[in-house]
Each structure stands twice: as structure tokens, then as C-alpha cells.
Amino acid sequence: MSQVPSIQLNNGVLIPAIGLGCWAGHTPEQREAGQHWMVTALKNGYRHFDTAHVYGTEHVVGNAIRESGIPREEVFVTTKLPSHHHGRVKESLEESLKRFGFDYFDLYLVHWPQAFVWKGRVSSIARVQCDPFRTDDNPSPRDKDGNHEVVEHPNLNETWAAMEGVLATGKVKAIGVSNFSVKTLTQLLQTANVIPAVNQVEMHPYLSQHELRAFANTKGIVLTAYTPTGHASVREDPAVVAIANKHGVSSAQVSLAWHLSRGTAAVPKSASSEHQVQNINLPVLDNDDILRLDSLDKNTHLLGYYGCPNSLVFGWTYEQLGW
Q: What is the pLDDT of residues 105-153, one digit of tens each?
């Protein structure tokens, strides 16, 4: 069994290859309850936590680190800029830091390439501190037909320029993107002065992202997988089960080991201490295992995006996303 390695990003920062996904649910109660299993993960050896503004758990991650007693500098923390804040990158980062309760993030990602309209009000730092779930800051603005209100500006190039600006402040150690494709990365790179360090995308044996991985490798961009073990359809696939039986591990451990074999990171979410431990103790796959898992690719997105009508993904078609 292998321990979790670190991957060096294109600016020299090291990221643990396996992290803990910190989406905890839709309600404040579910999010607050996440602190318990996040502390458990820290005790189990996790040193990479992946949250986001829209997860509503930035403050929960911060509280878990403080409760654990583990020094902040020993934990790699990622958060993400929400789509409705593309026009206020600096302000959004400051608000995230106030919720988190520390003075920097290790990695700051643009959560989606598309921008939403912002309908909030400028708030004081005191308000952000006392109200981490602001009622005047709607992260999912809709038009009268229920579709997300996507705006043309700022476009992804303009948003990325603002991301480069916050990198220069030292309040984030690295910047990157999430849910970007070859199409949207190509557009971003036309004007970028800083190459994204990471692109976090849905990736598992049924969605291998071969083309995107090859493109990212040529640019020095590390891919990180969310939904890294797929759904039950992947975990119960006969090929995955056979490899798991061969190594005496779970199907989830097989998929995570496959990510490591490809040089990609992964952020599985688990509230179970047993599964947390399994997910950072992984088998070493042989070449036949890897080739067999590679062959399962169906180019299939398994994740359903909450509240997205009319076959759109947060206001964009698959064609616009480059999926």
C-alpha cells in the first residue's frame, strides 16, 4: 500500500495528491456537522482540504483546523471563487478569508468559467465575520424562466486577470481553475500572464479526460479530480471489482490509485473514518490494471448539477463549456 505523495505545481508549491472534499450538504445544519468528520480526517492524516464559497464550509474547515491543534501551515487548503463574484475577485477572497479565519489560502480556483450577475450589496468586514451565510449575496441568481443569469462580462479572461492580481498579494499561494475544458483553457491562455496551477474537474474511470489531461500536461497544469471514484456504476463495474479483489482493497481505493498512477490529484469526500483511512492507503496498480481502467472511459459525466434546468450546466450548454 502506498502513502499519499505530493505533486509539485508549476510555481513550486506542493499539493498532497489526495485531499478531502468538503461539500457537506445544502443546509446550515449539515455544514456545521461537517466539522466533526473534518477533524476526524485531520486526525487520520489528511493534510489537503477542498472547499468553496458555494459549499458554505469555508468557516467549518477553519474551525476544524483550529480544533485539531494542527498548525495552519501543515494543511493545504483550497477554496473557489463563485460565479456571481467574477466581477469582485479581491472582495470575494477577503470575505472567504474572514470566514476561514486565517490569512491565506494555498490554492484559489475559479469555480466555473461562466460568470453570473451579482445582486448583492457591499458589506462591512464585521458583517462578513458575524454572518458567513449572507442573505444579501445570492450565489444562484435566476431569470424569470428559472435559468441562471449568465453575463458576458467579466469574461473568463477578465476574471483571470483579477485572479492574477490577488496572487500578487500573497494571500493565495497558487491560483487555478475548475470545470475548464481544452476549449476554455485555450481561451484563458490567450491573455494569461500566469498559467493556472490546477484545473479541478469531474474525473473517474468512466470520464478519463484523456484529451484534457494531455493538453494540461503540455501546459504544466495539474488536474484534480472531483467525484474521483464515480458513482455506484463505476464502483460496481466488473473490471474495477476484479482489480479490487486482486489487491484486497475496495473499488474506491482502486479508482484513487488509478488517479495517482496518472499523476493527478483527487479530492474524495467521506464522512466515515474507516473510508477516510482507506482513501489515503492505496494499492500500487500494475500496468495491466491501469490499461484496463483506462479502457473503461465512456466520456460520461455522472454528476447531476443541483437546480440546473433545461439541460444547462449553470447557464451554459455542454458546447459552451467545451465538454
A: 999 999 999 999 988 755 444 344 334 445 568 888 888 888 899 999 9
Least confident of 128-137, 175-184, 294-303, 314-323: 128-137
Mean predicted confidence (pLDDT) in 287-308: 90
All residues at 6 or more sequence positions from 43 whose CB lies less than 8 Å from its CB, including other chains: 68
DSSP state of 315: T
Please provide the DSSP assignment of 190-235 as one string: TT-SS--SEEEEE-BTTB--HHHHHHHHHHTPEEEEESTT--HHHH
pLDDT the model gives residue 147: 87
Beta strands in 67-114 (DSSP E): 76-81, 107-110
At residue 118, the 3 state secondary structure works out as: coil
Instruction: Look at the chain and count its residues.
Output: 323
Task: Give catalytic status of residue 55 as yes or no.
Answer: yes
Catalytic residue (choose from 46, 55, 108, 226): 55
Of 234, 175, 232, nearest to 200 by C-alpha is 175
Task: Give me the sign of the Cα torsion angle 275, 276, 277, 281.
Answer: positive
Q: Which residues pair with 110 in a beta bridge?
A: 81, 177
Nearest by Cα to 192 from 155, 234, 244, 143 = 155
C-alpha cell at position 222:
495539474
Averaged pLDDT, 172-176 = 98
- Quick one: CA torsion of 16, 75, 113, 268, rounded to 10 degrees? 60
